[in-house]
Amino acid sequence: MTQTIPVLAVTSGEPAGIGPDICLQLAQHRHRQVLVVLADRNFLQQRAQQLGYQVELVDYPASSLRPLPAGQLYVLHQPLQQAARAGALNPANSPYVLDLLTRAVQGCQAAEFDGMVTAPVHKGVINDAGIPFTGHTEFLAGQTGAAQVVMMLVGGGMRVALATTHLPLHAVPAAITAILLENVLHIMQRDLVRYFGIVRPRILVAGLNPHAGEGGHLGREEVDIMIPVLDRLRAAGMDVSVPLPADTLFAPHCLAQCDCVLAMYHDQGLPVLKHASFGQGVNVTLGLPIIRTSVDHGTALELAGSGRADVGSLLEAINMAAEMVRHERGHDA
User: Fold this and answer.
1) What are phi and psi of 87, to 5 degrees?
2) What pLDDT does residue 166 have?
3) Do 32 and 121 lie in a common domain?
4) pLDDT tens digit string along 13-24?
5) Disulfide engineering: 149 pairs with which of 34, 64, 246, 287, CB 3.0-4.6 Å?
6) CA angle 310-123-181, nearest 5°?
7) Are residues 265 and 249 both part of a single domain?
8) Do 214 and 142 have their domain in common?
9) By the 8 A CB rule, do 151 and 269 touch?
């Protein structure tokens, strides 16, 4: 977009979950960004009535875009396949969920939107519909043709990126290759500069094994794969650590010396961050040609339609996407 105010697409996610609820809650706040919620307009109106929210849905595209006052919400209508009900998953609506993402990506690629922010989807019901789907991160990589993407969560004063994402634990060691590590660290370096304004990112790298392999006695991945890559990147000027034991890496005095942590697998790094920031964390996809942030929580089917869903993580994701837009514009200037 050429205008100063960021225009962000917000996908409402799984219709049976809390995504529509928290998108509607956006209308209770004033925003400095232009937010366009992608959803079935009639369904969103019904959910607002169920929740008792007074929201005026403004059709997008509009003649002129501006941040709306509290009580109003831009909606880009995407039709549901079947009627949706809070808490009741329906595989027939899985194509709708993916259509929301596809439309937002297309808008970002066409400079219609400056970035996209995603409410949660339900991986299981999408797979139940016969559509192979491992997560937003991988889907968006396919949509944009990104060769490699990196999941990074931000919250609790931490940034934690993942070398591998949604893999069963037994598959992780084989996935940690020299090429993967080098690509992931280059993406982190580039995007921390471009989108976060960090001139020379300091990255702490967690070892794969307990005690970072104990010199090869508790596993050889650190010695055979990780250390040679990290030594090579350090010699080329990148500020990356040696493999560090994950059980002490997240101590405050270590975190104070870095801008981001690279964990080797999903449940190595994210439990620590989510303990510190659950409900306020943000998921950022690095390596895409577009800006994408997301909430750090799931669909919470049991809360859908109850009015008890917390919009905090979505607000943080919106603010972070807007900051990334600002840094990108400054970087490209």
Assistant:
1) 85, -5
2) 85
3) yes
4) 999 999 999 999
5) 287
6) 95
7) yes
8) no
9) no
Of 103, 85, 97, the C-alpha closest to 136 is 97
pLDDT at 3: 59
pLDDT exceeds cutoff 90 at 79: yes
pLDDT band at 1 (very low <50, low <70, confident <90, very high): very low
- Overall average pLDDT of the 86-99 stretch: 98
Nearest to 22 by CA among 42, 44, 41, 40: 44
Range of the domain at 223: 147-287
Task: Please indicate, yes or no, whether residues 153 and 281 belong to a single structural domain of this protein.
Answer: yes
Residues 138 and 19 in one domain: yes
What is the torsional sign of CA 239, 244, 250, 253? Answer: negative
Tokens linked to 35: 């937010």
Both 59 and 188 in one domain: the answer is: no
Partners of 19 in the beta sheet? Answer: none
Shared domain for 134 and 161, answered yes or no, is no
Tokens read off for 170: 């037994």
Q: What is the pLDDT of residues 214-242, one digit of tens each?
A: 999 999 999 999 999 999 999 999 999 99
